[in-house]
Amino acid sequence: MSTALHRPSTDGPTHRVRLVDVAQATGLDVSTVSRVLNEDPHQSVRAETRERVRTTARRLGYRPNALARALKQARTGAVAFVVPMVRNPIWSVVERGALDRAAQRGCDVLVVSEPPDRPRAAASYEPMVLESRVDGLLLATTRRPRVRSGAALTVPHVYLNRRGPHPGHDVVMDEEAAIALWLAEMARQDRRDLVLLDGPREVDTVHRRATAAGAASTASGPGRIHRVRVVHAEATEQGGWQATWRLLDAGRGRAPEGIGVGSLPQLTGVVAALRAAGVAVPAGTALVSFDDDAVLDYLGVPVASVAMPLAALGAAGVDALLDQVGGQPPRDVLLRTPMSLIGHQPARPPGRPTPAARIA
Amino acid sequence: MSTALHRPSTDGPTHRVRLVDVAQATGLDVSTVSRVLNEDPHQSVRAETRERVRTTARRLGYRPNALARALKQARTGAVAFVVPMVRNPIWSVVERGALDRAAQRGCDVLVVSEPPDRPRAAASYEPMVLESRVDGLLLATTRRPRVRSGAALTVPHVYLNRRGPHPGHDVVMDEEAAIALWLAEMARQDRRDLVLLDGPREVDTVHRRATAAGAASTASGPGRIHRVRVVHAEATEQGGWQATWRLLDAGRGRAPEGIGVGSLPQLTGVVAALRAAGVAVPAGTALVSFDDDAVLDYLGVPVASVAMPLAALGAAGVDALLDQVGGQPPRDVLLRTPMSLIGHQPARPPGRPTPAARIA
DNA sequence: CTGTTAGCGCTTTCAT
DNA sequence: ATGAAAGCGCTAACAG
């Protein structure tokens, strides 16, 4: 009794409230209650009844059992988003875009993180669908899906930010345009000895950027880039650090006039190495990051970045996947969102005159 | 026919394989098949039958329907891990620890990311359990659970790395010990003017570190720290940057002898500010991070870090939660894993003599 | 050792 | 406008 005093009238349910409980409380049949609560379009229910059901359900704190509903409807209303568990912050932006779009479309997203040291084949996630845990797969696996890796997946799926072994399931951004943007800016600055420093070739985005950069390198001519070397390294601070030193050694201390960097952790390593080697940025070497992030303002040197449409990528992936789940034939998606090069100046001490103000 | 030629004999199922399909194929009853496949301890099934079932199930590619099983057993075998969607990489380590332990205990983890700009109350995740999506909640919400925020959750749950409004549900690390470790080292180096630069007070870990630091500050005496100021700022690069400049302004250019930094993004901002201000690290100001990460080797200056038992935290959270789900009474957990202070020297150019080698 | 049966909570067709 | 009943795929108590 003393405890009861402290409890609200809508008491925490010892056993969960089921549809039948609502039916009982209102004196109606479960089917009627179900129709009301699901706002069945074919319904013809008296407004008074409808109100009574709604009120009672709310009072009892009724929550539909997702399991039973999914079992009956043969659809879970959820998709899995397989994402590499990396320190690179870009994925949280993609995830955010996917979550928001999925919420709009009344669907849950289960994020499945894949440890990079234990990469799994895309097919190993198929059981999640076969076991009715989710309706489809949004695949951004660490390991690049190999063309010859056997049969296509038999469940609804989309490869996000990478191309799968078979056409019709890829949602990707325009990496070639990103490379072109970088090269155009370098050409404008009359920088001709360039390096693309990126992750392992096995990553599909890297592969596409490297191919685009290589093609640009061979297509020399008036006003064209003369030389773009592609360097692969681990997508870590250490990878960027070591690769930069290798470049400096190979150039006998002469740094490339421009480096495009494929990932944020690598960029940290590159900046550290150039600073340690005494290379001026951007005077000696101009840096461009293919990821955009708040940290770019705090590297101590000016860098530019290509702002890729990451949130749109996540949203497009959800759209493509849910369309497949809904029975539409799969299709490839190339995001053509216009991109731009963003300059990042090192942050300035607050409350102090900026250089511009000083001049004025 | 031409397509059939290219398909393996274990064809992709147009309709999923159910238990009844396996039963039919073996000529047995579904209950028998179920017993075999679940390795029912009470089972007494002929070894030959058992083998036949297993073989057939594998051949047909049978996968149990998780929905039906969970519905019947009134248990999903999954827990939700609510984690702030932040750029701080520590959470991926916690997550990893949780995932591994959950896998050991035959349980799935659904990661639910909470956008920091849309913080939600812990109670808003209760429906996930009431709707039978998961069996329990591992809560690392952005917003600190307030003591007066109403009734306790009625479902199995654990607050991870923060304390909840009611005792018995907290799994936390020893933040006080971390602060003590830092202060002891500063005392050893005879540094007496110290600052703890940390996140917003609303974050429980911050609250506990700030309290511990404040207590140490008042307890002065022979060999004790004389002064520890606590400064709160956003847990971003910008937060660390701005707070550092405020400190420098307040000290008329004199930097604190030591700064303890609560989060990695803040540390980046602090290092950038000290570099811009020309403060020598560690000679003028010694930096200690309460997060450990690979990036610490690439900041260009020596820093130390307190290695917190993050993976163990995730594992302990899963243990505590699954015990609750299993019917045991909830309990608080304080991780007493011994911690140590780790020194990070800036990375050195590869293939060049280290200072030690140069001396030798 | 194996089969029969009931039922988890819900949706949906059909009947009234 | 509402109720009755079947059934989603599985497990577990009970029969044989």
Task: Please outline what is shown here.
2 copies of one chain form a homodimer. Chain A has 360 residues and is α/β, with parallel strands linked by helices.
Helix content of chain A: 25-40%
Give the strand order, joined by hyphens, for the main sheet of chain A.
2-1-3-4-5-11
What is the radius of gyration of chain A?
27 Å
Oligomeric state of the chains in view: homodimer
How many β strands of chain A by DSSP? 12
Separation of the first and last Cα atoms of chain A: 77 Å
SSE ordering of chain A: HHHHHEHEHEEEHEHEHEHEEHEEH
Chain-averaged pLDDT of chain A: 88
User: How would you sum up the global shape of chain A?
Assistant: elongated
Number of helices, counting only DSSP H or I runs of 4 residues or more of chain A: 13
Coarse structural class of chain A: alpha/beta
Low-confidence stretches of chain A: 1-13, 354-360
Largest sheet of chain A: 6 strands, parallel
Strand content of chain A: 15-25%
Largest interface: A-B, 63 and 63 residues
Topology:
The structure is a homodimer of 360-residue chains.
Chain A: H1 2-6, H2 19-26, H3 30-37, H4 47-60, H5 66-73, E1 78-84, H6 90-104, E2 108-114, H7 126-130, E3 136-139, E4 157-160, E5 170-173, H8 175-188, E6 193-198, H9 204-218, E7 227-232, H10 237-250, E8 258-261, H11 264-277, E9 286-289, E10 303-306, H12 310-325, E11 333-335, E12 341-344, H13 355-359
Parallel strand pairs in A: 1-2, 1-3, 3-4, 4-5, 5-11, 6-7, 6-8, 8-9, 9-10
Antiparallel strand pairs in A: 10-12
Helix pairs in contact in A: 2-3, 2-4, 6-12, 8-9, 10-11
The structure holds a DNA duplex (16 and 16 nucleotides).
